[in-house]
Amino acid sequence: MNLAGTGQPAEPGRGDGRGEQSSSEPTKRPYTVTRPREKWDAVEHAKFVEALKLYGRQWRKIEEHVGSKTAVQIRSHAQKFFAKLSKGTASESEKIEVPPPRPKKKPQRFQPSVSGPPQQQQPQQSLSLSA
Question: pLDDT tens for residues 8-18?
Fold first, then answer.
């Protein structure tokens, strides 16, 4: 099979627009926009910076302070804002000390018992007295 107008053979599963896919590649769902993108205006960003100074990384409290963004949106904005601060491209009024990240949880390790694995008890044999 040739690509339309090129005279070159099409590679299977390469999205040549004819619906062919190799059997080993999973089918992808089409991208759908569930909500339009919301930009942060100057007032929201100012409230964000103010709340960041007050509450550190307590995203729920920052969410309450800003009022118009969710905690997920705030975390995403904070990630981009911290990157901007580390690059040194933030304005003088925005320069703040970045709050330290939350300490990572240590994985719980299995603690074997000192006596070793549990042992099964043998049933006691009853002695019958027959006379």
Answer: 555 555 555 55
